Amino acid sequence: MDSVQKLASGFTLDLGPLKEPLGFIRVLEWVFTIFAFATTGGYSGSSHFTVNCIGAEPKDVNPVFAYPFRLPKSPYQIPPCNSSKPDDTYLQGDFSSSAEFFVCVGVFGFLYCTATLVLYLGFQHVYRQTSRGPTIDLVVTATFAFLWLVSSSAWGKGLTDVKWATNPGHLVMNDQCNSTCKAGEFPSMGRLNASVIFGFLNLILWAGNCWFIYKETPFHKDPNPPATMEEEGAPGP
Q: Which family is it part of (predicted)?
């Protein structure tokens, strides 16, 4: 209880850091991080093709898939042109690792941005009191920049594979179609395309912010330090 009271008493709201690159870029990171994982998690879509049997109405087939893109998880059925019972058919490919890794980086990045914004705006005196705060901030921010590079690249490749695996033109090559299937509309993946873009935008933001955090650390030396009395020398007679 005492520690909570001490923490609350030390809180001093100061919006000044938001006017500086350090705080402003962190807000941008917070926003774009939300966009990155929100456009990926919760996505669901479907492919489409039709089965055209002679003397019968075309039948629609809509294979459904969703995040985290374990495609064989949701079976679908291709209606046969004879009276036999249709068998379950599965989309091929499990791309959950790259998708979940991307979302995980986004969620943890969001949490870190939230924590550091509270630190910047409410405990700026604690942040600048020693060199430990900026140094840890620099290391964590650089680590997230690297993670955004890896996760965005992996998810970009995974999304390409998802598009291929759910392409109606690829699905109608199934042996059960027997040349009776016609490819329909391609799944809408605008959200997923945006997620990859947001991922690389986060890479730029987090990598660029490393410079401004670096300037807060003792590793950065002012190229024009203020002159001291000894450097100025004694005044002439």
A: Belongs to the synaptophysin/synaptobrevin family.
What is the average per-residue pLDDT within 152-176? 90
C-alpha 157, offset from chain centre: 14
Quick one: tokens of 78?
A: 């291709």
For the CA atoms of 92, 188, 146, 124, what is the dihedral angle to 10 degrees?
-140
- Highest-confidence range of 73-77, 112-116, 213-217, by mean pLDDT? 112-116
Q: Residue 9: what pLDDT?
A: 55
Note the pLDDT of residue 143: 97
Rounded distance between C-alpha atoms, residue 47 and residue 66, angstroms: 11
**pLDDT > 80? residue 23:** yes
Q: Could you tell me which residues come within 8 angstroms of residue 38 by beta carbon, excluding any fewer than 6 positions away? A: none
Q: What are phi and psi for residue 74, nearest 5 degrees?
A: -115, 105
What sign has the CA pseudo-torsion 66, 53, 170, 91? positive
Q: What predicted TM-score, i.e. pTM, was given to this entire model?
A: 0.83
C-alpha distances in Å from residue 3, one per residue of 6, 12, 89: 5, 16, 59
What would you report as the CA-atom Rg of the chain, rounded to the nearest whole angstrom?
28
Strands 181-183 and 44-46: unpaired
Contact 106, 29 (CB under 8 A): no
Q: Which two tokens stand for residue 66?
A: 């969703």
- Are the CB atoms for 184 and 49 separated by under 8 Å? yes
Q: Where are the domains of the chain?
A: 15-45+95-181+188-216
Whether omega for the bond prior to residue 68 falls within 30 degrees of 0, making it cis, is: yes
